[in-house]
Specification:
By secondary structure, this protein is mainly β. It has three helices and ten strands, in the order H-E-H-E-E-E-E-E-E-E-E-H-E. Helices cover 14% and strands 35% of the residues.
Length: 185
């Protein structure tokens, strides 16, 4: 009898909650930046299966973010401020992603960063293994909420001062970069 009474009370308690009273967490895909890094002939400098793979290029590539240095392939596995969500993934720095694109290109991946936090003009310096440098400045802010409380986001991703938001926002999106090999130098 107690079980039946408890069940009836639970049903009434849930039925009495209005739609707007239910607290929801939404998982939004994290912000990340992917790069297909090749030589002038289109051969990958970071894919170990490529004839142009350059271990020195990889070893000398790093990013600077929030005052810290993260070397390529040295997984940071740390929280980039902030990191308090139900969808939790560590910030990895700059890693080689073996399955980073729909067409299975091996890419350099910077991130991930929480998508529903207000990132305002965050700067990432990329120092490539050929001594070239690039800069990402990204903004991703919540500007409102939809009727079901899902966040509405405004995003802008600049690469060397040029807006590439659409490129990085596409599912599986990445940018192609041509860099110089350090082999034989």
């Amino acid at each position: 009898m107690k079980r039946i009474l408890f069940f009836i009370m639970a049903v009434f308690a849930l039925a009495s909650c209005g739609k707007d009273e239910i607290d929801r967490d939404f998982d939004v895909a994290p912000v990340q930046f992917k790069f297909d890094v090749t030589n002038a002939a289109g051969e990958s400098l970071i894919d170990k299966a490529s004839p142009a793979y350059d271990a020195d290029f990889v070893a000398n590539t790093y990013i600077k973010f929030q005052g810290k240095v993260y070397k390529m392939e040295e997984d940071a596995k740390e929280e980039a401020k902030p990191s308090t969500r139900a969808y939790f993934e560590y910030f990895h720095g700059i890693m080689i992603d073996q399955h980073g694109t729909k067409d299975d290109k091996v890419v350099a991946r910077v991130g991930p960063f929480l998508a529903d936090y207000d990132w305002k003009s965050e700067e990432i310096e990329i120092h490539w293994g050929d001594n070239s440098e690039d800069k990402i400045v990204f903004t991703s802010v919540t500007v409102g909420r939809e009727k079901d409380n899902f966040p509405i986001l405004s995003k802008k991703y600049l690469f060397n001062g040029v807006d590439y938001t659409e490129t990085f926002q596409k599912p599986w999106g990445y940018m192609h970069l041509v860099k110089n090999s350090t082999k034989g130098k």
